[in-house]
Amino acid sequence: MASVRILGGRPLSGEVAIGGAKNAGLLALAATPLTDDPVIIENLPRLEDIRTMETILCGLGGKISHRESTTQICMKDFTGDPNGEAVTQMRASVCLLGSLVARRGRAVLPLPGGCAIGPRPIDLHLHGLQKLGCEIALRNGHIHVTAERLRGASLFLGGRHGSTVTGTANVLCAAVLAKGTTEIQCAACEPEVVDLCHFLQKMGAKIYDIGNPVLTVEGVDGLHGVRHRLIADRIQLGTFALLAPLAHGDFFLSPADPSHCGALLEALDRMAVPAEVGPNSIRVLGRRCLLRPTDLTTLPYPGFPTDLQAAMCVLMTQAEGISIITERVYPHRFAHLGELERMGASIALEGQSAIVKGPRKLTGAPTAAADLRGGACLYLAALAAEGESTVRNVQHVDRGYENFEEKLRKLGAVIERIP
Ligand code: EPU
Fold first, then answer.
1. Which of 115, 173, 197, 377 is catalytic?
2. Is the domain of 206 the same as that of 290?
3. What's the CA gap between 396 and 303, in Å, rounded?
4. Counted domains in the chain
């Protein structure tokens, strides 16, 4: 269990280098069993979740090597089933179902349970795979997926909370090698899914209407190796963008694809935080902002991302009035609210909406992270608060933010890890 100590209330400023997108990296890694050829991924962030996925691939016999910012993965002749602690540690391991069943006709994985952000069912993943001809059985807490031959089909992947990111990835990875044409309706349109489509396309997959909620996939007999550079991490970028006004600083964030950040830029604008958008960067001018309150709802892309809901709650504590943020993707993703209240925030949870009263002076306090994004929001709150804070259980934050503390120190933050 790791902790950090943060001395808050200091203005921060400077440039932040945004790394490759964690979730795009996880989807790409999960697709590597689709070919015997080596696959090269550029810009794969060195993060706990990525390392866990690499451990799972190595457990199947994969060979992985790193050189500077490139990672080579070769899954030739992989065998066995993903198992061991690594699989149970990380929910994204479920993304391997599609590629394993497409390549070998079978996949067995422990059924992922709920987690700190609430229940995380995989019914839509299984529904999509079933439509493609898979038999699915649940035995001893494991999902067994088998298929003699995957067949293209028309299928609908929407659920109560909209589309599914990893579910779309799973079905895509199976459909690219299925016989015939697949139409995925209500496919997730997140940039990470689009990046996976481009990755698969470069491997020889035939995918049409990429980025749209209806994807068409024409199955092919085999895929080949690829060299692919991941998109920049829009959630890491958003986390720093929301920190800028909290730390009264100007942040230059790059590389960035502003077209992935429409909802975030709109939210900043509504809150009166100036931002300058360049072709490959975003500058957030957080000095002397008088923050306006706002009302936001998290939604699947291009809506406001659920992964920035916690960080947005912190910014809302500093707005001049009552702000509301409604969580429509993970209705239970509010474990951070209690910790923010400990620092002086005034937040009432009504159903799926956090009602945030601002402006409130935040003061340093001992806190604990319960999940990745909720943990990162505690860093932001601690940096905005007067005095010293500690954040325990920051191993959750390590799963998703590469060199987070180093990047914060470069901006002027006083932050240290407590052994
Ligand atoms: N859902 C179902 N049935 C399913 C799948 C999903 O009901 O079969 C529901 C979920 O419970 C949720 C909603 O649909 O209410 C959306 O879930 P989705 O499947 O899109 O989430 P995910 O694919 O498991 C990915 C990211 C998450 C991110 C969400 C939403 C990866 C590895 N994870 O999860 O990232 O919050 O999409 O954008 O890509 C994070 O990085 O901290 C993180 C949690």
1. 115
2. no
3. 25
4. 2
Distance CA 67, CA 163 (A): 36
Q: Is the pLDDT score of 112 beyond 80? A: no
Q: What percentage of residues in the chain have a pLDDT greater than 90?
A: 92
174 CA to centre of ligand 1 in angstroms:
19
Same domain, 325 and 306: yes
Q: pLDDT-derived band of residue 141, with 50, 70 and 90 as boundaries? A: confident
Domain-terminating residue out of 209, 229, 249: 229
Domain match, 13 and 29 both: no
The CATH number of residue 120's host domain is 3.65.10.10
Neighbours of 151 (CB within 10 A): 17
Q: Are residues 95 and 10 in the same domain?
A: no
Residue 91 reports pLDDT greater than 90: no
Residue 3 has pLDDT above 60, yes or no: yes
How many residues are listed for the chain in this entry? 419
Asked if 149 and 265 sit in the same domain, the reply is no
Mean pLDDT along residues 310-323: 98
Non-local CB neighbours of 143 within 8 Å, separated by 6+ positions: 97, 107, 108, 109, 110, 111, 122, 126, 136, 137
Residue finishing a domain among 172, 195, 229: 229
Closest ligand 1 atom to residue 160 Cα is 7
Beta strands in 33-113 (DSSP E): 39-42, 63-67, 70-74, 106-110
For the chain, how are helix, strand and coil distributed in percent, rounded to 5?
35, 30, 40
Checking if the pLDDT of 418 tops 90, the result is yes
- In tens, the pLDDT along 167-222 reads 999 999 999 999 999 999 999 999 999 999 999 999 999 999 999 999 999 999 99
300 alpha carbon to ligand 1 midpoint, in Å? 9
DSSP 118: B
Quote the domain boundaries for residue 172.
22-229
Atom 4, ligand 1: residue with shortest CA distance: 122
